[in-house]
Amino acid sequence: MHRSRGTTLLALALALALSISSIAVAQTKTVGYPGLGLEPGTPGGTLTLALGDSPPRFFYYGEISQPIQLLSQQMFDSLVEYDLETYDLIPALAESWDVSDDGTVYTFNLRQGVTWHDGEPFTADDVVFTYEQIITNPEARAGDAAQFTYTVDGETRQVTFEALDEHTVRMTLPAPSPVFLLQQRFFIMPKHALLPFSVEGGAEPAEINDAWPTSVSPSTVVGTGPFRLSAYVPGQLVRLERNPDYWKADEAGTPLPYFERLEFLIVQGTEAQTAQFLAGNIDQLNISGAQFPDFKSRELAGAGFSVIESPALFGSPPHLAFNFNAADSDLAELFSNAEFRRAMEFAVDRERVIEDVYNGLAELPGTPTAPVNAAFYEDTTGLFNMYDLSAAAAALDALGLVDTNNNGVRNISASRELEFTLTYGNDSAVFTDIATIIQNDFAEIGVRVNLQGIQASQLLGTGLSGDYEAIVVALGNLPDPELRKPIWQPGGSLYYWHRATQPASPGEAPNFDAMEPWEVRIWEIFDANSTEMDAALRAERYREWQRLNAEYAPVIMIAKPGNVAAVYDTVDNFVYSLGVIPGYNPVPFYFRR
Amino acid sequence: MLVFFTRRILLFFPTLLLVSFISFFIIQLQPGSFTDRYLEDPRFSPEAVERLTAQLGLDRPAIEQYGRWVWGIVTRLDFGFSFFANRPVSTMIGERLAWTVVIAVVTLGFAWLVAVPLGIYTALKRNGFTDAVASFVGYVGLAVPDFLVALLLVALVLAYGGTNVGGLFSPRFIGEPWTWAKFVDLLNHLWIPVLAIGTAGIATIMRQMRANLLDVLHADYVRTARAKGVSERNVINRHAVRTAINPLVSMAGLQLPELINGTIIASIVLNLPTIGPLLYDSLLAKDQYVAMTLLLFASLLLMIGNLLADLALAWVDPRIRYG
Description:
Number of domains of chain A: 3
Order of helices and strands of chain B: HHHHHHHHHHHHHH
Number of strands of chain B: 0
Strand content of chain B: under 5%
CATH superfamily of the largest domain in chain A: Dipeptide-binding Protein, Domain 3
Oligomer: heterodimer
Number of helices of chain B: 14
Largest interface: A-B, 66 and 56 residues
Radius of gyration of chain B: 24 Å
């Protein structure tokens, strides 16, 4: 984003005015979303949300954990954040920024007058410290050193960070990156509080993970975010209180957030969370389409809450994958054949999954970009083999897969039935239903499927180990495909359905010999796009990738579930949020009617 | 007596070593790795997997991991750390121990208070209407898993517009200083786990008490007591019940480890801040030192329970002598 001359002048004038009065007033940012129906609210009250598990600690970069992500979202800020309505990147702790013409130098002008929860001023040193000492520390368990390591002409080079003055930070990239700004939604941490845990402060690199255990005094966990830590009762509750000095205000000038207290009740499991919500102990709950009928009927019976649905950009659409490198060589050969996968696609009843499993609160998926992602989505539904069992049977016949011994199951060879195991997550009602629907339909066309249920959290690990034949996995959608490159680029570390494409050792070039021609093309698309700065060209390449995915079906995308939430009518200004996407936080706008 | 006691204590150590060894290697046999849970996060690169594996010492041979852990316990009473929370296992258990003990004691106390008199009553009024009803309810209580009872109670509370559907307190009381209102709120929440977890125990204890007493009521010395003209009340209380309760004392010892692993599912369903859910999570996540320490703790409790029961038995039953 290049600032217009007008804003620059305005900012200059403002800075001048500030320096003259020499009073450190926070550069308050007024925000409003009339497009989302948000209205100025009234301060006060307590909002109670659910936390699915106890936080293992309070340090965001110390552990990849959903509870920590949910809490950090409320206690910390990043340089940039999402516009809640358009998903555009808008200023947060960075009040504005400039990008050099070659796309390698980013200069962030920080918001002035922002203070940490303990009153210390927020400065450029904090930003540099966070990036240099924490995020790019490879020992930080939830850091992201890989994101700032570039390979240029076969040479590994790092992004550098420097504080130009108290309120200006410069980041220099070894090569241009189209998603660099999008990635700067990292929560900024206080240098004065965390220095002793960093290498700069004399600690070992791995000691950064020791920061802010749950036994820490709440007042020492300081951020710049809308709420600050007030109390933690192990296994029961995390209590946050309003940050009176937060830098955001609504359009009427009322400082945000509105709620005086934000409480996270620790409740494990969908059933227990549902019970707590229905009892009125939790104000809002994200639910799945599968739970919709129960909630909706209660809403209609006057339970005092509303069920809200919207199409989802984030979130995980499920897919069916066949293991190209299955241990069984007959199956591996079959599964590597795009014609076989396309034949099986005819037997995947997407409409039924959408209607019966998600109760209509899902849509036909992208391949795999979310349909609501206007920048990159290519509508490939016209290329889908939609549910048609006779077409599936005919396609299998054409592949020579016929029932030679008249037992109702097709044969790969005279001695080998067309039979395989389908692995799915049996602790998720959605996965179980999808797996059962697939099993039944496949049986109709003479393909025998044996179900194997495992924990949903183990699905990707199982996929990567290669110890499966077919599997139903759900993987996340993010705004830019580049952010999910390890999953979708052949040879990527999470490209689990075709492990033969993996490089001999991590970091080396992938095994191109193992790739199909279309996989090579997809690899090229991702490779070119990761440094391409021309937005239109990038989008065009990614659209080609989605068409290739639809045509060759490396995986069969099943459905894109929508956002569904239940919220009590006393909570106003509700905007759906997964809660774990850094930089997408509508909670400060909520208020009690 | 002292010799008996010492010998039993000394036997603890080889048993615990064996238990820890077996549980460690069963955990190792579980497919997948601790790091699997992070794979879906975009931040978790292959390099990060390697770093974390090295940080946690998981790149070392299994036998070395086990050896280091045992050595830590023996030399420093260090039970290892939780991979997940990056904290010593002992502090994590300590955090939840108090509520675990409170709930267990209240639940066990409730079960005994109800079951023993009921067992005596049904034995005396054998085959009567009350016996039939109590036995039926007892069997149902025994047959229905505690977590199902918990879910049904929660559904019942919801249906009647209650808000005490899990946990130990209403959100507004959590982390606040103790007041009378908070205590009432606790009682309002506590009855559900006590009832849910207690019912299964009631049936077992009641049936045991009933059977024991019936055996004893036909014994010679009871007939003798009656023949001597001792009042029926004294025959029952002094002679019959005192003998009949002995096997229950041994049973109480066996119930000690139930504090941890007997009520896991019910604790999860009811969202209790106890040790049970900690064990469950650690087993699922392969957070091995937490899981092993808890299993070790459970076996230790079982052995202590057995020892206490044996000692108590010697105390209540003059016929038993150790030596």
